[in-house]
Design a protein that fits this description.
alpha+beta, Cathepsin D, subunit A, domain 1, 17-stranded mixed beta sheet, 4-stranded antiparallel beta sheet, 7 helices, 32 strands, binds 2-acetamido-2-deoxy-beta-D-glucopyranose
Length: 473
Amino acid sequence: MSLCQYSIVFALLFVGAFGHGDEELFLPLKTLQKIQHNHNEPTCSSQKSRSENGAVMLEMKHKDYCFRSRGDLSKRLQKRLLADDIRVLSIQSHIKNVSSKKVEALSQTTTQIPINSGVSMQTLNYIVTATLGGRNMTVIVDTGSDLTWVQCQPCRLCYNQPEPLFNPSISPSFQSVACNSSACQSLESATGNSGLCGTNSQTCSYLVSYGDGSYTKGELGQDHLVLGSSSVDNFVFGCGRNNRGLFGLASGLMGLGRSDLSLISQSSGVFGGVFSYCLPSTEAESSGSLVFGGDTSVFKNSTPISYTNMVPNPQLFSFYFLNLTGMTVGGVAVQDSSFGRSGFLIDSGTVITRLPPSIYKAVKAEFLKQFSAYPSISGYSILDTCFDLSAYEEVNIPTIKIYFEGGAEMEVDVAGVFYFVKSDASQVCLALASLQYEDEIGIIGNFQQRNTRVIYDTKQSQVGFAKETCSFM
Ligand SMILES: *[C@@H]1O[C@H](CO)[C@@H](O)[C@H](O)[C@H]1NC(C)=O
Ligand SMILES: *[C@@H]1O[C@H](CO)[C@@H](O)[C@H](O)[C@H]1NC(C)=O
Ligand SMILES: *[C@@H]1O[C@H](CO)[C@@H](O)[C@H](O)[C@H]1NC(C)=O
Ligand SMILES: *[C@@H]1O[C@H](CO)[C@@H](O)[C@H](O)[C@H]1NC(C)=O
């Protein structure tokens, strides 16, 4: 444990300049609460996008940001965490099945759009707004699946969404996708379900089942997709006419996986198969950016980018696998023989990071040792390492770092260490959870990726990390 603690001036926090040493954060608790809970009702302003040095950036907000519903916060959060566990189970079961495919990348444009917390849209996933066939569509960002889809008119079974449904009949650039097309044939590897001829050979029916009971069903279509200042012609997506599940109030989902049908593969001629994001915390006013393209000069990273190679996983090509070789808690290396043994996946759609049981036990033990000054209390949902911090003005939080093959390093931002079950800090939990079995695949969830620039280079098969205080503009 480090003897070195850094004090910070409260005011500095508002400009995002967290004072921190290598091993521990010294943080006024009230500030941490502020990072995680915003007590003002957020308003849903339209998302921003801008172009810089030929790169397009989309503003990214947490999915709950817009359209916040009333109701018991704690209940809703618990539901989301349970949903998170179901996603993890589904990923684990999927891992045994799917086949592989190759992607090739071509050239260089960069564009960015805002990315936002989806909390007010009743999910712990992140959302962006893209323009499809001339309509703004707010969708969940998912690196763990490939097909992009939106709820579509006429709809057989659609959940509520505040934006109008996509209407193919009023988009002059919309085209349906024939069932003998290569796009229709790609469905099998992208979704695990093959495309079927619809009522006639001019349509291709799809089904994506997310394994937790969530699904979308409909036909493939193509239309003009605009991401910030760049566009992708004839973008193939799902026109969902029967959609159910844990999508909150989003109009659909953006698939950023690796197979041929994903947005990244389809746009590789424009963006070269590279994208990155900086995920903001759930604080209402904060946006991050989703950047398409490889121009790193648009980032606002405060540390150099360190890269690690993706680990090929022939069983599940859509996911991004990494070789996690170690972790430190407060500068102390956690000892466990399962580091580096099998791939970990990095996912924008899983909330809480899942560690194999032996690694989790070791991390938890080291964290408890260093955090022993604070009273432990009962667990919450999938989180079993919880504290009552309501009596403290300040807490010393051990820094958690994750290391990958090749020396790449991801420092978990202070906003990603604790999950505040109660906003008065009377139940605050370490935001990490254990997998059930040692041979399951570890997952780095979005909560721990906050305020980090995560770069996915599918051409070089690398993932990069750098610290960045997420902002847009
Ligand atoms: C779509 O969003 C952009 C900003 O992303 C905004 O400028 C534009 O007015 C919106 N269009 C519609 C029809 O809402
Ligand atoms: C995986 O394959 C098994 C056996 O073929 C099947 O029972 C199971 O439903 C499949 N799981 C998924 C998620 O596709
Ligand atoms: C698909 O079928 C149509 C006739 O329905 C035919 O004109 C077209 O060439 C076929 N395309 C492919 C890729 O086989
Ligand atoms: C991960 O990296 C370590 C150290 O380089 C290596 O020994 C191990 O075989 C790698 N594991 C995988 C799954 O690639």
